[in-house]
What we know:
The chain is α+β, with helices and mostly antiparallel strands and 326 residues long.
Amino acid sequence: MQAxxxxxxxxALIKYWGKRDSALNLPATGxxxxxxxxxxxxxxxxxxxxxxxxxVALESGxxxxxxxxxxxxxRALAGxxxxxxxxxxxxxxxxxxxxxxxxxxxxxALAACRAAGIDPSPAELSALARQGSGSAARSLYGGFVEMxxxxxxxxxxxxxxxxxxxxxxWPLAVVVAIIDTGxxxxxxxxxxxxxxxxSPFFDAWVSGAEADLxxxxxxxxxxxxxxxxxxxxxxxxxxxxxxxxxRPGLIYWQPATLAVWQTLADLxxxxxxxxxxxxxxxxxxxxxxxGDGDDLAMALSAIPGVRGVRISGLGPDAHLIxxxxx
Length: 326
């Protein structure tokens, strides 16, 4: 009753921010993302009848209780009550706005289900991962991925991700400018709750989502990089405007965040095809053509306040691996 899995972080182009049901972790809107091959989580799950409680070791940090709660869902599906030994690690900073919960819970979902002896369909596995982290539903797939909002508010079964375009079908690069590796003061769940409850812009954010999703699907299908980039930046700025309108306002950006954003605009004006996006954290992710990643990374690494850069292509589906701790 043991399995290990690797899943990759994803970066939303059309953003997800806000829940319509916290108990089922149902998103208020759909979203579209790209999966990154350079950022991943590895998780091993071993169900052991000799354990009285779950033993959870998260090498990069995290909440063991949240993992145990998720394992309860897997145990219910498998019809077992066996406790588990879980080990997990990331190859990038945790809780810093780089989607560590997405890759972490996607890897946990896949490893735990296989270790428990169940094999849910891709849609069922994605919906299960969503209950650990909303963005984890997308990290089960590679390339371009859409998270469907769904309409079933009773079970949430139709709120899951679907693949749009596999990574090899449109090779692009994402350069991540890392500005702060520390854990953010306001986590995404708390930030979403505050925004939905107090921002006067939240209803407009939700009502505009379907048009953004439709436009992005069309742009991806046409391989229209400029349109994809424009939609990405527009969704990012709308999300942060909504967050700024909360009480108190949510400000995840740091001075270097703005410096990177301005540099991307300057580079684009100079002829480099590059567009940025920012999640709930200070890091900036820049989307560019595959051959431009090195030059872009060099330009961003020279900005004061940027602690490092990571260059990534688009990543694969989550998959089983040999035990990394063997």
